[in-house]
Amino acid sequence: MKEGMKEKQVGEFCKEVYTDAYNQLLESLLAENGTNLEQTPKNKLEAFEAIAQKYAIKHSIISSLESYPDSDPASVWKSIYGAHVHRKSGVEDIRTITNVISADQSWKKSSGHAFEEMIKDISAEVLQKENINFVLQRDLTKMLDGHILANEKRDLEWLRKRVDESVFDLYAITEHNNKSYCFGCIQCKTSIRDRVTRDREPSIDAMGAFFWSIAIVLDGSFLKMPKFISMVNGGGTEHRTNGWHGLYVFTSEKETGRIYRTDITFKKLKDHAVKAGRQWLTQRQWLDSTWNPEI
Question: With contact defined as beta carbons under 8 Å apart, do 268 and 260 qualify?
Answer without folding.
Answer: yes
